[in-house]
């Protein structure tokens, strides 16, 4: 199977996810700066989630450059990832509207954790099809950032029982860790 349909579908779903997130931001009740300021938690949650969706889109795009053939397992793993990513607008709206309350922050972290695990499963399916010597297998190596992200998400989820600000800081930290462009796949593709 060709990977073009998978890429096009994924890009479309990610574009819709971003659109849904921005549509969740309601206009202020009033017409002054104070009424706009009340939307600050909603806007901050949107920015963080926009960055996360952008990171997944960017990494998915790079990963798809390593794919030669698509299997049913890859298709289902990709749908699994898109399912969890599609919950980001809901969890984003929840944390924003409730000013980063503990349980919405826990749920947000759970969604981010599941996105990370789903991405790992997709990587595994691609490597399973293309082999341990494939470009993707070489590029991710031991996948230190991926493993650290999962550990940090679990810590963030657990920290909501102490203080939700700690989880927010961890979510931001993971996003910043992935915001730095990962050149591993690009370097291998340039050498190929």
Automatic annotation (TrEMBL):
Pfam families assigned to the protein according to its UniProt record, in alphabetical order: TMEM175
Known catalytic reactions: K(+)(in) = K(+)(out)
GO CC, any one term: membrane
Membrane topology: Multi-pass membrane protein
UniProt keywords, alphabetically: Ion channel, Ion transport, Membrane, Potassium, Potassium channel, Potassium transport, Transmembrane, Transmembrane helix, Transport
One MF annotation (Gene Ontology) recorded for this entry: proton channel activity
The keyword Transmembrane appears for this protein: yes
Domain of life: Bacteria
Keyword Transmembrane among record annotations: yes
Compartments in which it is found: Membrane
TM segment ranges: 9-27, 39-58, 70-95, 101-122, 150-180
InterPro entries: TMEM175-like (IPR010617)
Parts forming coiled coils: none
UniProt family annotation: Belongs to the TMEM175 family.
The protein, known as: DUF1211 domain-containing protein
């Amino acid at each position: 199977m060709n990977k073009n349909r998978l890429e096009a579908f994924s890009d479309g779903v990610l574009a819709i996810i971003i659109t849904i997130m921005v549509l969740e931001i309601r206009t202020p009740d009033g017409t002054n700066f104070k009424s706009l300021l009340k939307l600050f938690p909603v806007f901050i949650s949107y920015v963080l989630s926009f960055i996360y969706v952008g990171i997944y889109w960017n990494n998915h795009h790079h990963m798809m450059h390593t794919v030669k053939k698509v299997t049913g397992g890859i298709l289902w793993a990709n749908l699994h990832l898109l399912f969890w990513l599609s919950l980001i607008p809901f969890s984003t709206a929840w944390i924003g509207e409730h000013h980063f309350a503990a349980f919405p922050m826990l749920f947000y972290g759970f969604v981010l954790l599941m996105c990370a695990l789903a991405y790992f499963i997709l990587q595994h399916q691609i490597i399973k099809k293309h082999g341990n010597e494939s470009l993707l297998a070489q590029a991710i190596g031991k996948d230190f950032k991926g493993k650290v992200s999962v550990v940090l998400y679990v810590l963030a989820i657990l920290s909501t029982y102490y203080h939700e600000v700690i989880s927010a800081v961890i979510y931001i930290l993971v996003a910043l860790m992935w915001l730095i462009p990962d050149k591993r796949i690009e370097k291998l593709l340039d050498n190929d």
